[in-house]
Design a protein that fits this description.
Layout lengths: L1 E2 L7 E2 L4 E2 L4 E8 L4 E2 L4 E11 L4 E2 L4 E3 L5 E4 L4 E2 L4 E3 L2 E2 L4 E2 L4 E2 L4 E2 L4 E2 L4 E2 L4 E2 L3 E4 L4 E5 L2 H24 L29 H7 L5 E3 L7 H10 L4 E4 L2 E5 L4 H18 L4 E4 L4 E4 L4 E3 L3 E5 L11 E2 L4 E6 L4 H12 L7 E6 L5 E6 L5 E6 L5 E4 L4 E4 H5 L11
Parallel strand pairs: 1-4, 2-4, 3-5, 4-6, 5-7, 6-8, 6-9, 7-10, 8-11, 9-12, 10-13, 11-14, 12-15, 13-16, 14-17, 15-18, 16-19, 25-28, 29-30
Antiparallel strand pairs: 19-20, 21-23, 22-23, 22-26, 24-27, 25-26, 27-29, 30-31, 31-32, 33-34
Length: 404
């Protein structure tokens, strides 16, 4: 039910659905395709509440505040059953787990996941794409692309629910009840959804390389602000921001092997190896990105002399995952080619023994070779450095054909 209070009436978009057993009071604005479940108490009596498009506030949730405060649930926020949001700000596309409590003046960054029964204390600032659990809630890791995909798919079901409720929902009058039979307890067939609980999705969702951060174009200043506050890295390409997935164990082992081996072999020379925290700028393409490893020969050069954005890498390494393979081999390689100092590109597969080497010849053409045996070596033409594939793949867990 909707209730006026001190001249303030709730404003509800016609596409939203507010269950009659929910209580929405006073200065409350509810956007498009919002679902408000039964038992929810949304009290805009002492302040204001803004629930943006595509949010859902599920059964028995409470949203309230101290006097003079405006609570905002940004677009796509997902408030799980029984949660309490008191005087807080919830970022875009967040998941607030069941029976969690978010206290006054807390700010939950975009695309966060707050675990069930967590307590976020007053004034806490949670960076974007953080996973928070516990009492008091603590950031335990970043939100991976798999997690974000799972969350977004779950919220999409609730975004479709208001229209379905308007079409099909109605009270059942006395005498209309069905008589239950054993077969009635089978789950009803649903069409149009491909959503599964996280434990099922965790094993089947492919490792994703890039999730678009937003639908609008971002300035470089906004991108740098995102990078400063986020626990995960982002790639910037011509005004778009993409989150980069956290890597699996074998991916990290291979990256570490490359950096460790090359660091020792190049020590004292004119070339040095750098890891995946070194951001490079492909200036002609307006691409800011993080290769898994790189070699720079001679004096390093930086965009605006800032020491954050290297512009003269010599050799670039990418460790391939199933979903990044095509992007790294094709699109990203083409972008890298506009770097005038770039002479050699090494792709290392993280699922099987396969190294691809691309070398720029004197005519400016790229020649390639593949190495697929642990008994072979990779010779870097640019530095004359030799690495055995046993060294590169040492310590990985996937099955390998080898003579070890």
């Amino acid at each position: 039910m909707l209730y006026e209070f001190k001249g303030h009436r709730p404003s509800v978009d016609p596409s939203a659905f507010v269950h009659p057993q929910a209580a929405v009071t006073g200065n409350v604005t509810i956007g498009r395709n919002v679902y408000i479940g039964p038992g929810a108490a949304i009290r805009g009596d002492w302040g204001g509440i803004v629930i943006e498009d595509g949010c859902n506030v599920q059964e028995n949730c409470t949203i309230h505040m101290f006097p003079g405060v405006v609570v905002r649930l940004k677009e796509g926020a997902h408030i799980g059953h029984g949660a309490i949001v008191h005087g807080a700000q919830i970022g875009r596309n967040c998941l607030i787990g069941m029976n969690s409590v978010i206290m006054d003046n807390a700010e939950i960054g975009d695309e966060c996941i707050i675990g069930a029964m967590s307590f976020v204390k007053e004034g806490e600032k949670i960076p974007s794409r953080s996973v928070v659990v516990g009492n008091p809630g603590k950031v335990v890791k970043g939100v991976t692309d798999q997690m974000l995909q799972w969350k977004t798919e779950g919220t999409a079901i609730y975004q479709a629910l208001p229209e379905e409720m308007r079409k099909y929902w109605r009270p059942v009058e006395e005498g209309e009840q069905n008589v239950s039979r054993h077969e009635d307890f089978a789950a009803p067939e649903r069409t149009g959804y491909n959503y599964r609980p996280w434990k099922e999705n965790e094993g089947v969702i492919a490792e994703e390389s890039r999730v678009q951060y937003g639908r609008r174009r971002y300035t470089l200043e906004e991108y740098f602000m995102v990078e400063e506050s986020s626990p995960v890295k982002h790639e910037y390409y011509r005004g778009e921001i993409f989150a980069m997935a956290s890597a699996k164990y074998d991916h990290n082992v291979i990256s570490g092997n490359l950096i460790g081996i090359l660091g020792g072999k190049l020590y004292g020379g004119s070339c040095r190896v750098l890891g995946s925290d070194m951001r490079i700028l492909v200036e002609e393409e307006e691409l800011f990105t993080y290769p898994d490893a790189l070699i720079v020969c001679g004096e390093p050069q930086f965009w605006q002399n800032d020491q954050y954005h290297l512009i003269n890498p010599t050799v670039l390494f990418e460790v391939l995952s199933p979903s990044t393979r095509d992007y790294d081999r094709e699109t990203k390689f083409d972008l890298y080619k506009t770097l005038h100092t770039f002479k050699e590109y090494i792709l290392v597969d993280s699922k099987m023994v396969m190294v691809e080497q691309f070398i720029k010849n004197a005519e400016g053409l790229w020649q390639s070779r593949k190495i697929s045996s642990l008994d072979e070596d990779l010779l870097l033409e640019t530095t004359g450095t030799r690495l055995s594939l046993k060294e590169i793949y040492g310590g990985t867990l996937f099955p390998k054909l080898s003579t070890e």
